[in-house]
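Narrative progress, year one. The postdoctoral researcher (J.K.) led the effort to move from monomer predictions toward full complexes, under supervision of the PI. The following entry was the first complex the group processed end to end, covering 245 residues in total.
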Amino acid sequence: MKLARLDAGPEIFHTLQGEGVSVGRPAIFVRTSRCNLHCRWCDTDYTWNFKGTPWEHDRGTKHDKADVTFEIAPAELASRLAAMPCRHVVLTGGEPLLQQGELLEMIGLLRATDPGWSFEVETNGTRVPEPGFDAAIQQFNISPKLSHSGMDEALRIVPVALGHFAAHPRAWFKFVATGPGDLEEIGTLAEHYGIAPDRIVLMPEGRTAAELDRSAAKLAAAALERGWRFSDRLHVRLWGDQRGV
Ligand SMILES: Nc1nc2[nH]cc(C(=O)O)c2c(=O)[nH]1
Ligand code: SF4
Ligand SMILES: [Mg+2]
């Protein structure tokens, strides 16, 4: 399977969940490589924005695919995780649901020796998980992409997948907003798919504290008004714009 590469190894790191409903929870993050979307402001574009691809990204730098990819077998990933000091894992990317078969194999190996492992998945909500994978995951954090991502609506909004997660008892919706203009778009989606306000988390976009500050207070007020939740980006506040945190 393909993970993002960080220095000489795969991008696996022990940190606090920085976003969404479980902000502050200690976790091991595993960053898969590859995504089916290509958002213009993506902060992990080294998982998909490779040399020779036509995708447009705000930073405009293309990555060498081999330099930013780490191939690893599910069993090897499981043994690296077993050596870490935490039993809660966040699977992120890229888009982790592109490799759910391999991830499920890894989960099975870990749980065979310790059933206490728990897993969250960060996904763009365009793929319906396989039943076995779905059942193995304690929490899905769905981030549907809005028009400011630059993606065609037909690619970023997949009704069968969004409908699946809207009805899912363990799914939460995290919307990245760049400003008050995005609120109407989020409200329309929430209404169309029947997502209760309490399951919506509004989060500012930004790779630095200064960028977050541009919209955080306005978005927090908007969340309060609508009965939505608000999440800052804790890891950005604590550690700034770096990888592996
Ligand atoms: N600390 C921390 N929390 C996160 N929550 C979601 C992340 C992601 O990149 O998917 C992330 C991340 O990269 N770091
Ligand atoms: S869906 Fe997420 S990982 Fe994929 S391009 Fe968009 S922001 Fe990046
Ligand atoms: Mg991130």
